[in-house]
Amino acid sequence: MASLTNDSAIRIRSGLLLALASATSFGLSGPLARGLMNAGWSAAAVVAARVLLAGVVLLPLALPHIRGNWKLLRTNANLVAAYGLIAVAGTQLAYFNAVAHMEVGAALLIEYTAPIAVVGWLWVRHRQQPGAATIAGAVLGITGLLLVLDVASGLSADAIGIAWALAAMVGAAAYFVLSAQGGDLPGTVLACGGLLIGGLILVLAGALGIVGLHATTHRVVFADFTTPWWIPILLIGVVTAAIAYVTGIAATRRLGSRLASFVALTEVLAALIFAWALLGESPRPIQLLGGTSILIGVVAVRLGEPATAALGDPETPADTPTKDRTRAEG
């Protein structure tokens, strides 16, 4: 019993560290993408380059897990396709298009209501009614986001921007739910397959004229320096996609989709720090207060997370075949 308790505690701690690493990596993507788009790249081109590069980087890690067991990939083909189309390509493209029509803060706020959508999905679909601590954590987390994004100063957005941001919110919620599924499919395989499929879908859409694919070789300008275009492309592909998605999937399989989605709220704090360093955008005191509220909300959700939903099979590593977690985690 003591061994099981220790294994569970280790699993939770490692899951939290992985979730924070994923959120921090994702937080870097916005400032890098903004620099590339300012240099003449289209949103679809940035997303396509990001996910295709990440998929290629992960391919050597994913292949050993399915070599000689291609039936496993065929069995989960629908999951991988949905992950690539909705959680990868759809979410990123929707967010960048939202930013093109509305303020960045407003777009982020709408997208990051995804944790509430996850809680609602688990409640309606799987009858996992949230407890008082989870509800309180949700309120604190969303309140913190309102403060971090400083929406009290006023927002202006058109209907198209709001629609794109809502689409990004649905995609973000799908990311957490889909990451927790496919219990017998290694996380690197899900991430690699989803990234490659998502990127190829965007390239095909660009070839058909559905989305614009524009790229340049102009130097990318940040707050205090300029850099060749390929440096932010490498960072946005390897760090903010390959590393971010794999650590995010591993974290979700350790923590459950509900808790992982709330820990991912720290991406907003990471994005603020990177935006300050790369774009010269300094957070205001009200935003720091909001960050504190987010962290308290994450702790509250942790206290309210049911043990069975959070732990799954405590002795199974996240990147090896796992038992059925779909019932408890989405």
TrEMBL record:
UniProt cross-references to InterPro entries, sorted A to Z: AA-Vitamin_Transporters, EamA_dom, EmrE-like
Aminoacyl-tRNA synthetase is among the record's keywords: no
Cell compartments where the protein resides: Cell membrane
Keywords attached to this entry: Cell membrane, Membrane, Transmembrane, Transmembrane helix
Sequence ranges assigned to domain EamA in this UniProt record: 14-149, 160-301
Any one of the GO CC terms: plasma membrane
Residue segments, region Disordered: 310-330
Transmembrane segments: 39-63, 75-98, 104-124, 131-153, 159-178, 190-215, 227-247, 259-279
Topology within the bilayer: Multi-pass membrane protein
Extent of Basic and acidic residues compositional bias: 321-330
SUPFAM superfamilies: Multidrug resistance efflux transporter EmrE
Pfam name, any one: EamA
Protein family membership: Belongs to the EamA transporter family.
UniProt name for this protein: Threonine/homoserine efflux transporter RhtA
